[in-house]
Each structure stands twice: as C-alpha cells, then as structure tokens.
Amino acid sequence: MIRKKGKIIKWNDDKGFGFILPSDSQRNIFVHIKSFSDKSVRPAEGQDVTYTVEKNNDGRDAAIKVSRSTDNLVRNRASSNRKKNINPTYKRINTNNTQLDLKPVSSISPLYTMIILGFVAFLFHFTIEGKLPPFIIAIAIYIVMGIMTYYIYSEDKEMAINNERRTPEQRLLALSFFGGWVGALIAQQKFRHKTKKISFQMSFWTTVFFNIMLLASGFRIIHF
Question: CB 3.0–4.6 Å: which of 86, 120, 164, 176 could bond 207 by disulfide?
Fold first, then answer.
C-alpha cells in the first residue's frame, strides 16, 4: 500500500482519535490511537506523520500504520532511561525541536503538602474536644479510600501510557467525594496525572470542598 504524508490537525486525547490533513489533499483523514506504530508517546496536534489508508467499519477512509519522524528518537531515549533506572514522566512531543521531556517524577508540592497537613490537623481538632470515636472512624475511612484512590490513579496513568481503556473521570471524582481525595491529590502530583486538565481540576476541588463540608456536618450531627 502507498504511504502518504500529512499532519495531525485535530486530536481528542480523552477519546483517543483525531484527524490528519494529507499533504496532497484538503480532505481530512480519521485516525485512531490504536493505528499508531509507536504508542510510547501520545499523539498531538502539529505532528508530521506518514500512514496508509483503508476503509473502516463505517466505510470512511481511515489512517493505519501511522508513524512519526520522532518515533525512533522517543523509543531510543525511553530505552536509555530504563537502563539507567530512571522513571520518566511522558509528555507530548514538541514538534518544533523533536525533543521528549523525560523529567523524573516530582515530589509533592509544598502547597499540597500544607493542604493535606491542614486537613489532618482539622481532624485532630476533634480529638482534643473529646470526640475520639468518630475521629477514629473518619481516619479509617480516609486511609482506606485514599489508598484505593491512589491505586486507581496509578492504574489509570499506566493505561493512558499504554493506550488502554481509561477509568471514567466520574469514577475518579466519586472516589474523591467519598473520602479518597487525599490519595488522589498525592497521585496527581506523583504521576503528573490530570493536573493540567482545568475542567477536571475544577470538578476535583469541588468534590474536596463538599467532602469536607459533609464530614463537618456529620460531626455536628453526632455531637451537637
């Protein structure tokens, strides 16, 4: 089959598909994430690609066996980092200089550390007032939910890198609402996952607010 050249002009990373503008045509070609030869880096708008065309189930032209000029560069650098025991965080390629940002996983930022410690202090406040039994129950719930949420975030990050089916955002937000937001916050920072999606961050912090309000209301009902 004839290889064609083009450029990704639109990409929906959440849904895993986009469109390629062929270099010899103005008719966009549909492309799915599974059609890329190298899946170590997510596709992004502006990337130059080569591909072949076939009909999909809907009878439309679709790009298959899609490759980028930077694929070998990315693969070689990732392999080199693995040999050095570096745990890279993958980001989209900058098509202007074809370099891959392979920064190591960062620690939790001071701001988020203060938020978590402040919340723990808030819970300890109830201990000082002699409200120990509810406090213990709350701590147990937050520990269990935090560990569970952290694990699910780490799995979702791995699925994102491997282009597998993702965890719905509604489920991640529900876990935060029911007490897993501390684990979610740690996972977001450690894996750099969901930190740049503004709509998700707004929803996430909304669940944090309502979770704390729900906790405070529960203590008031029990003790007052």
Answer: 176
